[in-house]
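Fold this sequence, please.
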Amino acid sequence: MFDTLSDRLSAAFKNLRGKGKLTDADIEATTREIRIALLEADVALPVVREFIAKIRERASGAEVRGGLNPAQQVIKIVNEELVGILGGETRELRMAKRPPTVIMLAGLQGAGKTTLAGKLAKWLKETKHQTPILVAADLQRPNAVTQLQVVGERAGVPVFAPEPGNGVGDPVDVARKAMDEARAKQHSVVIVDTAGRLGVDEELMKQAADIRDAVNPDEILFVVDAMIGQDAVTTAQAFLDGVGFDGVVLSKLDGDARGGAALSIAQVTGRQVMFASNGEKLEDFDVFHPDRMASRILGMGDVMSLIEQAERTFDADAAAKTAAKLQKKGGKDFTLDDFLAQMQSVRKMGPLTKIFGMLPGASQFKDQLENFDEREIDRIEAVIHSMTPAERNDPNIINGSRRARIAKGSGTEVATVSGLVERFFEARKMMSAMASGKGIPGMPGMPGMPGGGAAGGRKAKQQKLAKGKKRGSGNPAKRAGGGAPQPQEPQPGQLPAAFGGAGQTGGDFELPDDLKKMLGGK
């Protein structure tokens, strides 16, 4: 959703790189580009004006003029202001002191409230270890009750639906009875799904207010379709005035619309965006972290979300056993069965394009990520499953006749089988080096890699110099200082090197060769 905005912001910052100091003309040109980028993303005009004014004021201050790298300082300022308009700090759900905690969902029809009710219930059940119950209080939309029952069954959560819906029944009475049901069966959370509106409908707005008064919710969440642009702000303000709400949930963040709602709604309404839904599966649901979203928009990746996702997906004991195999005997105990298990675990985290997109610098490989064929993983699985246990345990025995048999069994070409075996050996070597603390072979800027700034890179350079006569630096300043300057640590509040701070802009980021091959690059 934020691809276009990210591209425009990256282009604006690129013009600042290499400048020793910022002039007023530089600041004006950069803020103009940022303003155009935000307006094209459909961000509300008052938000854009306030955002640009803050950036211009801070960029014109001494903190940038006296900085070593103006481009990095401007990126830092934009990042901090983006976090601000997205809501600042992450807000958690308020839980009732005495259960049940009541959460009421409201919003326009078609915003995805019913599906989101199931996602929220599943998240509360699995992450917060709660015992939620869903309440079918949307008795207006055709088959809304049936849909909630299906969603509840998929989420493994009970649904309270005493009325058939389709215009039959009193939603306020259903909400009251649901509270008695929750107390009787000791449910810790009650999630009330209310009727959506086709606009700011006075009658349905009053109905929502009556349900609110009947159940006295601890949280009222306004569900908004992230693709409707600036109109989301108008609707949110109308709901805030008519019913009131405590937090916002953005649905359909996986769409290709311009995303202005996400950047506008928290600033205009003063209510925090608390959750984001970014897919159709019940697992496609995340807590909204303003700092991480700002990082994604600026192309810095979202490593923390990637780590959390991995922790939820990977089995710790299995991962420890795999790491032990990779550390011993140069990784020779790591087999194709282990490789397949690792690949299947990664797939559980979601589409590979989404996972790679969370890596810093991945925006530079956007085209390759978009063109990556997820079915390639299915073909790899088919090839491995077509091998005998002995072949999976020791791929070195796979000769020409065996490759022909495996290719026929998996419905692929012999070249595909050969390529997989070669890639397996390369991947095993890379993972073994990582498990042993030597870094990723061939990836600059990491320990132990050619061209890196850590011990491995320095050692190779020292060995090379030892063969011939040592030469002094051609830079008088370096000679006077006794050698090459040490890498600077990020200053307080400054971005780390990998994110464009402390002397680097992130423009030299390179994916490993193996990953480039997988994504179809050269």
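The longest helix spans residues 414-435. The longest strand covers residues 101-107.
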